Amino acid sequence: xxxxxxxxxxxxxxxxxxxxxxxxxxxxxxxxxxxxxxxxxxxxxxxxxxxxxxxxxxxxxxxxxxxxxxxxxxxxxxxxxxxxxxxxxxxxxxxxxxxxxxxxxxxxxxxxxxxxxxxxxxxxxxxxxxxxxx
Length: 134
Known about the structure:
Elements (H helix, E strand, L loop, with lengths): L6 H4 L2 H22 L8 H31 L3 H5 L53
Helix pairs in contact: 2-3
């Protein structure tokens, strides 16, 4: 036997069907409650609410089953068991964020996208409050 989990082990079909069934029951009950099935209504309205609730539950069951099955197909079983030692959202060729690179001694300390530092001569700065402006 191999130590690799199979796709069936990752998401068993019974779990897939169970999750779709729970979603369908929830959608059917919400539909029945919203249509007033549990209130005193005319006899024809209760049958209509049951029919609409069953239709909504069936559509929800099929849609949930289809969506989850397609999402399971998108997962490579080999990638699930593989440990990640880098941030997930960074590109694969990005340098490691744990070790920041030291700037070169002759390079300016500001990054290219940051605003330039204020000049040291005092030009471009606001005077203290109450001081006359030139």
